[in-house]
Amino acid sequence: MNVLIYLLPMALGLGLAGLFGFMWALKSGQYNDVEGAALRVLSDDDLPK
Amino acid sequence: MSAITEAIDLSLYAKPETAGTLGMDVAVEGISCGACIARIEGAVKSLPGVTEARVNYTNRRLHVAWSESLTEPSRIFQALQDNGYRGHPFVALRAEQEEAAEARHLTRCLAVAGFAAMNIMLLSVSVWSGNVTDITAETRDFFHWASALIALPAAAYAGRPFFSSAWTALRARTLNMNVPISLGVILALSMSVVETANHAEHAYYDSAIMLLFFLLVGRTLDHAMRRRTRAVAGNLAALRAETAHRFKGDELINVPAAALKAGDRVLVRPGERVPADGEVIGGNSEIDDSLITGETARRKVAAGAIVYAGSLNYSGALTMRVTAAGGSSLLDDIERLLEKAASAKSRTRRLADRASAIYAPVVHTTAALTFVGWYLYGAPLHDAIITAIAVLIITCPCALALAIPAVQVVASGALFKRGIILNSGDAIERLAEADTVIFDKTGTLTLPEPRVVNAADIDPALAQRAARLALSSRHPLAMALAREATSRAPFDGAVEEPGQGVRALIDGVEARLGSASFCGAPLHRDGDSGISHIYFSYAGQHATFAIAQRLRSDAIETVQALRNLGLDLRILSGDRVDAVRPVAEMLSVAQWHGGLNPAEKIAAIEVLKAQGRRVLMVGDGLNDAPSLAAAHVSLSPISAADVTQAQADAVFLGERLAPVFDAVDIARRARRLMMQNLWLAALYNLIAVPVAIAGLVTPLIAALAMSGSSVLVTLNALRAASRAHDPEKWSPIFGQDYAQRKKTPLAESDPS
């Protein structure tokens, strides 16, 4: 079971990366307008005219 | 043009952002779909000098930033108007900002607790399955230490909302639900560390963290709901914010009413509301004080008269000098009564607090008795302590702490959908307890603005011509008539003669709308039980429109429905007895009083309270504010005076009275569910506690029991939203209904 010695910290590290990712997204205001984000994806303003 | 597009002094709202740019938040009316986002942002960004424009669709606001030197900020509002939206400069209230910060804090705590709960569960499930198969003691210890490494920092971070609240309660020598929660979490964690150090089979890291996670989910949802209603309330306040025409020397500039200072000279045109309390220094007019006193008959004012913020100016332009707030006897009176009523209001204890006041001592005594019992029975000290702590963990009020907030979240969501915005969290419980409803008359049972009452007697074609002509006038009577117009297009070339009326050529024939002499019509006596007349002449035909306060369209049905719920209904009005009687008779309310001043209204409520009744007060006038504060629970329509709205436990939108019924109905249902949930939680404890006292609880059983009961209680709470009869489809704020009730004349609002 010695493999756990490094597998467990790796799993935790990946989880922590996800957690910090979420914190960053929260801090940068990506959750300020959740309804708007769902609608913005439908707008075609990025298409070449 | 409407007030907002005249040159308005926006310096109060624009805040410096990065170097050389100014920023402002704008509450936008009319955002209804995803396409609006691109349209608004495109229109505003195309203005020269605008560096940023971003719509927040969730709370219907626009953030703009522009270079200080370049853009005239009023062009932003013009651009919105050109695209069919109305913008209102918006300043976030302190309360809203604080709540936003707290919500972010809760979300971070939730994220940490969620991360920890998932990882610890991963380890715990391995230990549980290993315990019944072939896990080695070393691996188990390793997993337990890893759990401790995750759980301790996570609990220290994510538990702060509970720990700080529990600490505050303990210092005030009271108990709230957070005390047993904090105690349970801390004891579970410290016992687990000790057990891990002793190479024990069981540790409770997962229980402690799962508990925090479940509770944080409930709190975050509760907060999100409250923030959403708060955002709507903030937007409505911005929509309602009045502008005033202030004299600067001889020039007039438009400023937000909030920026007026004592001593400012202000012009109030006919059809506008008085922006601040003050004294008239020039001009003659009639003033409608119904929002202040409930009195529907108009008051003549001239130089020297005192006028109050919110009164409607009828006939002539007035110049007034702003006096300091509270400088008048009426307002002083109301302020004094308000203070008294607020302090005398017996602080009703919330259901949750009452439950925890019983719960916490019982649980803690049970744990202590368990310890003493096992110890006397001869168990080793260590085992006795472990069993006692297991009792504390299993009784940790996960379900109990969710039982009430979960129902509150669902019920306030259901109320929000029906156009009712809660000001205070425990209003639902108090609404459910109400057994007597007291209505104010003016603006509550009746619509806030007067309407045509004799439309049936007038030839429809003639009436439509008159109503369309009325679109060109700012006179309040004409504005009342204009509401009947089916076409929103005013006649070309309409001319308003100040103090007389308005005239225009319709198909080459002159039409006149205004006073009797202006139209050459026979005079009707005005002021008879609140009825005013406006005259119309066209091609030799005459029509006289009677304008008066009219009942809300569904008032009779709503009052009957409330009576069917077993509520005792009364009317207490500040208006004259003659004006109250017909309303009371139409609604068949037997107990009514008219001509009451604020103190007498409070006295009437006190009498009812002394009889042990729980009074629901529904009112809108400034004179109702003290009675709203004195009543057990209170509602006010969105058209109410600001002071009054601040006192009300909930505010309802729209022209219908049905929200009063909905509020009581949903609140009663919610309270039933809260009680059910409390009993479910009690039942859970009744089963779980004996098992814990017997010392049979393992971490696996604790995790199953706690999650199971939480899920059960939450599912039960969801029933608060479902209801037998279908609510009228209703867009909460920015629907047509509200737009039509705006104080600005309809002729100017863009029918987009």
Q: Would you give an account of this structure?
A:
The complex is a heterodimer of chains A (49) and B (752). Chain A is built from two helices and no strands. The model of chain A has no long low-confidence stretch (mean pLDDT 85). Chain A is mainly alpha-helical and 49 residues long. Chain A has one domain. The two termini of chain B are 16 Å apart. Chain B is elongated. Chain B has 752 residues and is of the alpha+beta class. Chain B contains 25 helices and 27 strands. In chain B, the strands form five sheets. A seven-stranded mixed β-sheet of chain B has the order 15-27-26-25-16-23-24, with helices on both faces. In chain B, strands 7-6-8-14-9-12 form a six-stranded antiparallel β-sheet, with no helix packed on it. A six-stranded antiparallel β-sheet of chain B has the order 17-22-21-20-19-18. Mean pLDDT of chain B is 81; it is low at 1-6 and 724-752. The chains are: A mainly alpha (49), B alpha+beta (752). Chains A and B meet through helix 1 and helix 2 of A and helix 1, helix 3 and helix 4 of B.
Descriptive labels:
heterodimer; A: 49 residues; mainly alpha; 2 helices; B: 752 residues; alpha+beta; Alpha-Beta Plaits; Calcium-transporting ATPase, cytoplasmic transduction domain A; 7-stranded mixed β-sheet; 6-stranded antiparallel β-sheet; 25 helices; elongated; disordered C terminus
Strands, helices and their partners?
The complex is a heterodimer of chains A (49) and B (752).
Chain A: H1 4-27, H2 34-40
Chain B: E1 15-16, E2 21-29, H1 34-45, E3 50-56, E4 61-67, H2 74-82, E5 86-90, H3 94-132, H4 137-158, H5 160-171, H6 178-197, H7 205-240, E6 243-248, E7 251-256, E8 265-268, E9 278-282, E10 285-288, H8 290-293, E11 299-301, E12 306-307, E13 312-313, E14 318-322, H9 329-344, H10 351-377, H11 381-394, H12 398-417, E15 420-422, H13 427-433, E16 436-439, H14 441-445, E17 451-452, H15 460-470, H16 476-482, E18 495-497, E19 501-506, E20 509-514, H17 516-519, E21 532-538, E22 541-548, H18 555-564, E23 568-572, H19 577-586, E24 591-593, H20 598-610, E25 615-618, H21 625-630, E26 633-637, H22 642-647, E27 650-652, H23 658-693, H24 699-717, H25 736-740
Parallel strand pairs in B: 16-23, 16-25, 23-24, 25-26, 26-27
Antiparallel strand pairs in B: 1-2, 2-4, 2-5, 3-4, 6-7, 6-8, 8-14, 9-12, 9-14, 10-11, 10-13, 15-27, 17-22, 18-19, 19-20, 20-21, 21-22
Helix pairs in contact in B: 3-4, 3-7, 4-6, 4-7, 5-6, 6-7, 6-11, 7-12, 7-24, 10-11, 11-23, 12-23, 12-24, 13-23, 15-16, 18-23, 23-24
